[in-house]
Amino acid sequence: MLLAVLSGFLLAVAAPWVHRALGRHSGWVLALLPASLFIYFATFLPQISGGGQVVIEYPWIPGLDIQLSFLVDGLSLLFALIVSGIGFFVVSYAGRYLEGERDLGRFYVLILAFMGSMLGLVLSSNLISLFVFWELTSITSYLLIGYHHEEAKSRKAALQGLFVTVAGGLALLTGLIMMAMVGGSYELHELLTSGDIFREHDWYLAILLLVLLGCFTKSAQYPFHFWLPNAMAAPTPVSAYLHSATMVKAGVYLMARLNPSLGGTEAWLLLLGLLGAVTMFVGVFMSVRSTGIKQVLAYSTVMALGTLTMLIGVGTETALMAAMAFLLAHSLYKGALFLVAGILDHEAGCKDFLQTGGLRSALPITAAFASLAALSLAGVIPMFGFVAKELLFEAVLEAPALAGILTFLAVVSAIMVVAVAAIVGIRPWYGPRVDTPKAPHEAPPALLAGPVVLASLSLLFGLGAGLVDQGIIAAAAGAVHGAPVSVYLSLWHGFNLPLLLSVLTLALGLTLYFNWDRFRDSTRFLEVLNRYGPEVAYEKSMAGMVWLSEWQTRVLQNGYLRYYLLTILISTVALVTVTLMTHADILIAPDLSDVMVHEAFIVAVLLLAALVSVTTRSRLGAVASLGVVGFCVALIYVLFSAADVGITQVLVETLTVIMLVLVLFRLPGFLGLTPTVLRVRDAVIALSVGLMMTVLILAASAVQYADSISAYFIQESQPSGYGRNIVNVILVDFRALDTLGEIVVLALAAVGVYAMIKFRAEDNNSSTTLEK
Amino acid sequence: MSPQFTLQSLILRTTAHFLLPLLLVFSVFLLLRGHDEPGGGFIAGLVAASAVALYMFALDIHSAKRVLRFEPRDLLGWGLLFGVISGVPAVFMGQPFFTSQWLELTLPVLGELKVGTPLLFDIGVYLVVIGGVLLILLSLAEAED
């Protein structure tokens, strides 16, 4: 199982070389991985179809109780099969679709890494590893949306998708950690059995909101739906795979997954049911209003995600069964339709429905299977989409609350869905021929394989609903419900209200399609709303963040060393003083009885040198007196038997003086430009820093909370460190990691100074050449 | 080279020729004995850097660069690399990163010798210090040109 999840990442690493070696056939070869994964996951079917589950654990970070554990039950298996199955078609399709692209190797890396992350997400049983895979899908999605990174539009869409989903991801992480704290475990298979603990806990609402924020942003629920249509800047195989069949369903997956723990409350029903229904309505409305091929499909995906959320919110057995059936149906027909959209673009150059028509004679096979998939989208008997739609109507009619409003929204949406299906399934293929940018011709087998198989499956599962009923759909619904469900899938439910609604929506939907142009004109006034939509809020908040960071950079990073020092010193003094004041019980009693004469003498010299350095009128004098201060400090180290530190101090002082001398020549003459007031201010600050440090050190040495660690080092230095110089043993052995950090900082500082001097020199050179 | 940096003292220039190798040998001595007596990579690195700085003042930057042979930037990189590598053997011994590993050798003439990863680490510190200090010093001096 570990290998199955990680194989996507492993192959991703090798993909560029595979691509280079195999050239145009690389797509088929790389697609073998998702194909074999599909077969591997299919072998789990017998085990879980009765409602069983398999848990597989590997230790990952045992110290933090984080395991790499996998949970295979109906829900995760359904997703894993969809991810690997559609993955096969998408990878082989992409090999042909993006043939000859310079970056095809990179594309394979990303799409395979995405597949690995998505499988990890749906199979993870540990909340933390689930979150890690969740974020990995966001990152690979970001890179894939921005695949055409030369275009500003792609980059913007990619960033938008990333920001929205990652912001939600942060909320999700908080929610998951709170869940683990309440439930006492990070393991899903343990948490899922303890629903009442969550529902009755004080944190329930907070957990629910945080988790849902993550799910809603990921699954493009209203009002976070706007990133999904923009994400269509990605190449079409990516849209088909990430932004329709799999990644955007991750939020739906998590809501379904957590339904046994968090579901079944009023808040759950209201939030998911209502927001899902609103998303469904907004999505399909925007879909009918659009004309761009990928835009129509993207908004109808938003509709599907809303529908799934609504059904999970309703949460009855029928609703969950409907959700799982709809999930499968949507993945099949939407995957097929997106791939058809790619064919239209690739073979005829069409990107907009207004530029298409009568392509049936040029692309007969594509036309046939596109229409078949569209029939499933519309929910026409005998497609699998019809089975799902019947259950959907049944579920909203029986909803425990809000039944009226949900049914109304579902029916209105279904009418528009039929219109969308007609736009996709009729408009490009039938009617008078419209001139296309490219001379249209039938697609090659690599491009056709996906639409043909997926659309055929839509028909097959419709005719034989029993094929997937107990095998996987009921098992998945059972996993969501937390108990076995007793609803069956069937094509024919008899003459009842759902059937009547189906017929009604078909008729009204077709009417809408034939008045499509008039509908778009009559709703044009609604475009005003775009100016107040959530996307505008997103733009505004991003602009606000940029403004805020500019402002704080201007204030804090002002480029004047003196202000940096002032800020640091004043805040240190203030914070330490407040702490010392509030802990006034610390007794400070300096004991001066054992001070020797030579020690007092060194201190006196030190003070004198410090005084000279701030009052002298000569720059060289200031440097020299600072040097005296440094050497006095070194002497003190030596007196207190810290030979190493003393030597270091002497050497550093020497080098500092050398550097200062080198810099000195660049500076203008020493002028007393600072007004007296400022000098007094600086003196006050300097003295208070000194005073604060003195008090702090006295206070610190007066208090001893724990035994000094020195004894341990002195004792252990020789036997376990093989060295008699304790300072050195500490530096290179006991605390080697700290020292490594320090030398890294040292190296960075040196490079920083180097860059500053070099660029400065270059600037000067270029300006002098300009003057010449 | 602007005249203000070459002190143009014949005595200094002559002594620098002798002092540089002596100081460098001394720095290696400090580096190697550092585990038992005062010394170690940091101090040794500072001594070596001061030696090159002295040479630079006595002659000029170009001679100093020539005598250094390595780019200070490269020394930084090598030093960091040594520092990190010295922590790796422990991982293969199944111990936490940076656990020191020692090898006791008995050499025919020198007698008992202990070689361990902390020495490699100290050499890394040594190189980073030399590289860092000289990178700043040399580029400052060069900017004066």
From TrEMBL, chain A:
Keyword Transport tagged: yes
Membrane protein topology class: Multi-pass membrane protein
MrpA C-terminal/MbhE domain residues: 679-762
One Pfam family per UniProt: MbhE
Domain MrpA C-terminal/MbhD: 605-668
Start and end residues of each NADH:quinone oxidoreductase/Mrp antiporter transmembrane domain: 124-408
InterPro entries for this protein: CPA3_Na-H_Antiporter_A, MrpA_C/MbhD, MrpA_C/MbhE, ND/Mrp_TM, Proton_antipo_N
GO molecular function, a single term: antiporter activity
Keywords: Antiport, Cell membrane, Ion transport, Membrane, Transmembrane, Transmembrane helix, Transport
Transmembrane segments: 74-95, 107-134, 157-182, 203-220, 240-256, 268-290, 296-314, 321-344, 364-387, 399-426, 446-465, 497-516, 563-583, 595-614, 621-640, 646-671, 683-703, 739-757
Cellular compartment(s): Cell membrane; Membrane
BP GO terms, sorted: monoatomic ion transport
Residues of the signal peptide: none
The keyword Transport is assigned to this record: yes
NADH-Ubiquinone oxidoreductase (complex I) chain 5 N-terminal domain: residues covered: 62-108
Gene Ontology terms: cellular component: plasma membrane
PANTHER family: NA(+)/H(+) ANTIPORTER SUBUNIT, NA(+)_H(+) ANTIPORTER SUBUNIT A
UniProt-listed NCBIfam families: PRK12647.1
Protein's UniProt name: Multicomponent Na+:H+ antiporter subunit A
Gene source species: Ectothiorhodospira magna
UniProtKB/TrEMBL annotation, chain B:
Protein name per its UniProtKB record: Multicomponent Na+:H+ antiporter subunit B
Similarity remark: Belongs to the CPA3 antiporters (TC 2.A.63) subunit B family.
Lineage top rank: taxon: Bacteria
Main subcellular location of this protein, as a coarse class: membrane
Species this protein is from: Ectothiorhodospira magna
Residues of the Na+/H+ antiporter MnhB subunit-related protein domain: 11-134
Transmembrane segments: 12-32, 38-57, 78-98, 118-141
Record's bilayer topology term: Multi-pass membrane protein
Subcellular location: Cell membrane
GO cellular component: plasma membrane
Keywords tagged on the record: Cell membrane, Membrane, Transmembrane, Transmembrane helix
